Amino acid sequence: MNADRWLADTRTSYDTVAVSYADQLREALAGAPYLRAALALFADLVHAAGGGPVADVGCGPGHVTAHLHELGVDAFGIDLSSVMIDVARRDYPRLRFEVGSMTDLDLADASVVGLLAFWSLIHVPDEAVPTVFGHFRRVLRPGGPLLLGFHVGDESRLKTQGYGGHPMNVHVHRRQPDQVAAWLRDAGFTVEAQMLIDPDESVPGAVLFARRQS
Ligand SMILES: C[S@@+](CC[C@H](N)C(=O)[O-])C[C@H]1O[C@@H](n2cnc3c(N)ncnc32)[C@H](O)[C@@H]1O
């Protein structure tokens, strides 16, 4: 897939749904005990690593960034969609949110102690994942924790509408945790833990904890 094309389609799609996405997802963590547990563990790992800035990459409307803040994490958000960032700034005016892409992360080397990508890698095509993980490794301090959340499966599908029936034109890639773990190891991460969520559902989720090697 043309690199600029998928980025442009993803950006436009999330610009279109940003307000309704925020309305639907704002309270979602309240009903997601396993995700809350994963975020609490991630916060513990960040504190144990000495604390410091944490990037929520593909933050959407910022509710996960805000949840991390409530856990004492100095989190800030980055998203491809400028409308998502507008909504995040509106809803959480005390927090920092910036427009940017994980394919070309505009952060200094070793500038964050932790990095989270929750259901944002799902739009990145396979051929771009090594580049993205290279950026994640570059911006993380040695030993810094990484938390990924993604849909589990083998298929990719084109999502043509969502979040209240708005038009979208975005590919959603499901992946096996072993494949994601292999990409992470190739990029210089140690994989430490993974959790499968809703394994009996048609599309389970996975959260995967890794750490930048020294
Ligand atoms: C399904 S939403 C997840 C949002 C949020 N992390 C959450 O857990 O609700 C996917 C988000 O990833 C963002 N995204 C997709 N590709 C991106 C990229 N290359 N760089 C940064 N953000 C991206 C989208 O704009 C969208 O806000």
UniProtKB/TrEMBL annotation:
<dbReference type="Pfam" id="PF13649">
    <property type="entry name" value="Methyltransf_25"/>
</dbReference>
<protein>
    <submittedName>
        <fullName>Class I SAM-dependent methyltransferase</fullName>
        <ecNumber>2.1.1.-</ecNumber>
    </submittedName>
</protein>
<keyword id="KW-0489">Methyltransferase</keyword>
<dbReference type="InterPro" id="IPR041698">
    <property type="entry name" value="Methyltransf_25"/>
</dbReference>
<dbReference type="InterPro" id="IPR050508">
    <property type="entry name" value="Methyltransf_Superfamily"/>
</dbReference>
<keyword id="KW-0808">Transferase</keyword>
<dbReference type="GO" id="GO:0032259">
    <property type="term" value="P:methylation"/>
</dbReference>
<feature type="domain" description="Methyltransferase">
    <location>
        <begin position="54"/>
        <end position="144"/>
    </location>
</feature>
<dbReference type="InterPro" id="IPR029063">
    <property type="entry name" value="SAM-dependent_MTases_sf"/>
</dbReference>
<dbReference type="GO" id="GO:0008168">
    <property type="term" value="F:methyltransferase activity"/>
</dbReference>
